[in-house]
Design goal:
14 strands; nucleotide-binding; binds adenosine-5'-diphosphate; ATP-binding; 2 domains; alpha/beta; metal-binding; Nucleotidyltransferase, domain 5; magnesium; Aliphatic_acid_kin_short-chain; eight-stranded mixed β-sheet
Length: 399
């Protein structure tokens, strides 16, 4: 029998949704945006594959979800899976119970922009669909297998013991999906050592051993790590005092600069946070764009080389995310900066892979190199189904 899960990702004024059925071609997806304003609308793809655009003036999250579910009519889901950015120390997807909701609330100081929006969505779906089992799938959960030497910061101990300051990591759903998929295609499902590079607007790297995350580039927040669209990634932590003392900026202004005005956007002198625009500008001789691409690729390679310390051996490397899946140019640049591990890129094969195509791009010697289009919604749906099945077996009261 075909089952379907409604996957929801709630932001402060938007809801990304996807109805994932085990028949993948039937996926319905879209975005409700500008919620709470006169411009609120739903844009997406219908069950027939047609574009959908629906104005829902002043609709809030609950109204938007109600409209969505009414439109799905005959395709009513069997469960709802919520993407939740921060699960604190929760190690796996969980059925939404009052206790788990409390844990999401408790993790709010660690994800002040994301978790409150997820909670609005959870509250709305709980009220609208009390009969449906609902599951939270956390971006942080996959990284809870990191050993302590990978997740602790070299700070006074009480920050960790009393304030939970540690490295958590994000993009866990994507790293889990692509590493499972690549190792499966390689004929060694969840075996061996893999490096994964998720390169989108937010970007992170991960080292995976026998199917478990053992280190990752993001930390307490998604700001740590490699260069991103508008996030700086790693900088000297003294930058806050340097800027405060010399420019008189306060913490909020510095935080905003590091999260929203840095990365590719900052390096390119505000030209763009979009890699396509930068590649084009660089080809036309723009020096800032050229440097932004160079810093991005070098810092990515450096991060992957650093993460390799956690792996007893390297079986393969995976590129994913909008940049990783589409840009043969960035993949090639990154591999040039990774000369020491025996990777051998097949340039022709590399150039053929983009727009949602998965495949192997090494010459067949040394560690493998894969391009795997990520499928976070599919993974969330799968984990949701597994949690619901498990709960049924244990006879937990759901709905
Ligand atoms: P998000 O993190 O918002 O989900 P995506 O994974 O969609 O983002 O990735 C967006 C990034 O992918 C942008 O920087 C975009 O320029 C880049 N991208 C998409 N297609 C290409 C391409 N053909 N070449 C280079 N970069 C690309």
């Amino acid at each position: 029998m075909s089952t379907s899960v409604l996957v929801i990702n709630c932001g402060s004024s938007s809801i990304k949704y996807a109805l994932v059925s085990d028949r993948r071609e039937n996926r319905i997806y879209g975005l409700a945006e500008n919620l709470g304003t006169a411009e609120a609308r739903i844009k997406g793809i219908t069950v027939g594959g047609e574009p959908l655009e629906l104005s829902i003036p002043h609709a809030d999250h609950e109204k938007a979800l109600e409209t969505l579910l009414a439109r799905l009519a005959n395709y009513k889901p069997q469960a709802i899976g919520h993407r939740v950015v921060h699960g604190g120390t929760l190690t796996k997807a969980e059925l939404l119970t009052p206790e788990i909701i409390e844990r999401i609330v408790a993790a709010t100081p660690l994800a002040p922009l994301h978790n409150p929006a997820h909670l609005v969505g959870i509250d709305a779906t709980m009220r609208l669909f009390p009969e449906l089992p609902q599951v939270a799938v956390f971006d942080t959960a996959f990284h809870q297998t990191m050993p302590e030497h990978a997740y602790r910061y070299a700070l006074p101990k009480f920050f960790y013991t009393e304030h939970y300051v540690r490295r958590y990591g994000f993009h866990g759903t994507s790293h889990a999906y692509v590493s499972d998929r690549a190792s499966e295609l390689a004929g060694q499902f969840r075996q061996g050592g893999w490096l994964s590079a998720h390169l989108g607007n937010g970007s992170s790297t991960c080292a995976i051993w026998n199917g478990e995350s053992i280190d990752t580039s993001m930390g307490l927040t998604p700001l740590e790590g490699i260069v991103m669209g508008t996030r700086s990634g790693d900088v000297d932590p003294s930058i806050h005092s340097f800027i405060a003392n010399n420019l008189g900026w306060d913490i909020d202004k510095i935080d905003k600069m590091l999260n929203k005005e840095s990365g590719l956007l900052g390096l390119s002198d505000n030209l763009s946070n979009d890699m396509r625009t930068l590649i084009e500008a660089s080809e036309n001789g723009n020096e800032d764009a050229r440097l932004a691409i160079e810093v991005f690729s070098y810092r990515l390679a450096k991060s992957l080389a650093g993460l390799s310390c956690g792996l007893p051996k390297i079986d393969g490397l995976i590129f994913t995310g909008g940049i990783g899946e589409n840009s043969a140019y960035i993949r090639e640049k990154t591999m040039i900066y990774l000369p020491h591990f025996g990777f051998k890129l097949d340039k022709d094969q590399n150039n053929t892979l983009q727009r949602g195509t998965e495949g192997r791009i090494d010459v067949g010697q040394g560690p493998q190199i894969w391009v795997i289009p990520t499928d976070e919604e599919g993974r969330i749906a799968k984990e949701t189904e597994q949690v619901v099945q498990q709960a049924k077996k244990l006879d937990v009261v759901i709905g």
